[in-house]
Amino acid sequence: MKIDLTDTTASKINKALVQGRRAIGTPAVGMVLTMVIVTDEENAYDSIKAAEEASHEHPSRTLVVIKRHARTPRERTQSRLDAEVRVGSEAGTGETVILRTYGEVSEHADSVVLPLLLPDAPVVVWWPVDAPQYPVKDPLGALAQRRITDMYAVERPLQALEARVNSYAPGDTDLAWTRLTPWRSMLAAALDQARTPIVSAAVESEADNPSAELLARWLEARLNVSVERVETAGPVVTAVRLGTENGEVVIDRPEGPLATLSLPGQPSRSLALKVRPTSELIAEELRRLDADEMYAVALRGEGTKETPSHV
Amino acid sequence: MKLPEDLGRHTVRAQYAGAWQGGEKVRGYLEEDGIDPSSTTDTYAAVRLNVDNRRWAGVPFYLRTGKRLGRRVTEIAVVFQRAPHSPFDSTATEELGANAIVIRVQPDEGVTVRFGSKVPGTSMEIRDVTMDFAYGESFTESSPEAYERLILDVLLGDANLFPRHQEVEESWRILDPIEEYWARHGRPAQYASGSWGPEEADEMLAQDGRSWRRP
């Protein structure tokens, strides 16, 4: 069910949500979090689709804030808020409200979002593109426990990475880091088997890949070795080599979803290591809503005394 | 009913200031038509009270009310003590909030029970979930408007739903000392329209190691 509201306010949207919920006969609110997507018209479709798929694992109210750019001075002076309320089968397992802001209200989108947040439930903000310099200081970012950015969606990922290092606050996370989770669990499992000290390390990836840089920093922080960054043709991260006294531990993924794990003195074997779609990354990010301490460690690239369960 | 000993620490009053509320620009209280710019009339109040008997010893009652807040809502929330969960390590229960029963008086009348539940799967993760009862949906009849029932009672001469004079007097006995304190000390704080109240109210709860829930 879809309800369109033109030139509206947050309280009218709240009424439309209750009305829509009653009309489809599911009055109870079983949603566990509010997801705020801040995007532009161009990226809205893909992000909403990803959020709807993720909502099958995490039933949520999705608030999509789309800032409309005025092209004439006359339009710029007019302030207007349009909303599209989707409930039921149109909106995955939760509710979706698409908010389009015109003119001055664009600068005050937080005033629209605040009354629409679910009571008590955690709030996650995701910027698929154009993340602010300081996510935690952004008016919308300040409402959230968890702030998701994506370094893959910027022109200069490695510069963005440095900006993230400087602006890090507990609760920040980045999809470039989420993409590494299978790599990190494979590497940790491989080292559990190898059980020898690591003396050298190398990460091979395409040029300017922020995930590779994060992976290298994570290895530096956790293994206390310097990590060589090797440039290859890609796609994304292609291999990690960890040198031990007995030989190399290698996870190699030249292309496709299949990787090869080689351990010294053991036959090499195949691993599934596919590049995951955005919806899976978002679903993974929403599984834990406390601060991602390991991301902070990887960003800074310094050693810490974390418990092994965090690896 | 027991008032806090230090009224300055455990009560807050405030006036709304001009800001953006729900997508509209609104004026502050002191800028409204016909309002004295030096008015000390409050549009927001938060107090902590205690019930002075054995059952409710050590349970603070926080009341807050105000105009131009985030949205129009009347709720009673019973927030329970955190469960110790000693079998689990602290990372496993880090996200566990305090369980609560929320009685929604208006709008969307109903009751919500909020509690921590383990996320399915092998890892020990806890997430807050809700059980929801919506009064308006459980019956095919819609309930009468709030004043419909009262007017009927007036016509019938039935005073059950009206406060008696003792109740009114008792209410003022509790509130008068606070009003007198406010008249003698300071000015109302300011809060942005559309927010959930002034920072002073957050600080009032923070000093008890608590925070207001988001309604």
Description:
The complex is a heterodimer of chains A (311) and B (215). Chain A has 311 residues and is of the alpha/beta class. Chain A has 10 helices and 14 strands. Chain A has 2 domains: 2-174, no CATH class; 181-275. Chain A has an 8-stranded mixed beta sheet with strand order 1-4-5-3-2-6-7-8, with helices on both faces. Chain A has a 6-stranded mixed beta sheet with strand order 10-9-11-12-13-14, with helices on one face. In chain A, strand 4 (80-87) and strand 5 form a beta hairpin. Chain B has a single domain, classed as Dihydrodipicolinate Reductase, domain 2. In chain B, the strands form 3 sheets. A 4-stranded mixed beta sheet of chain B has the order 5-4-1-10. The longest helix of chain B is centred in the last third of the chain and has 20 residues, at 165-184. At the A-B interface, helix 1 of A face strand 2 and strand 9 of B.
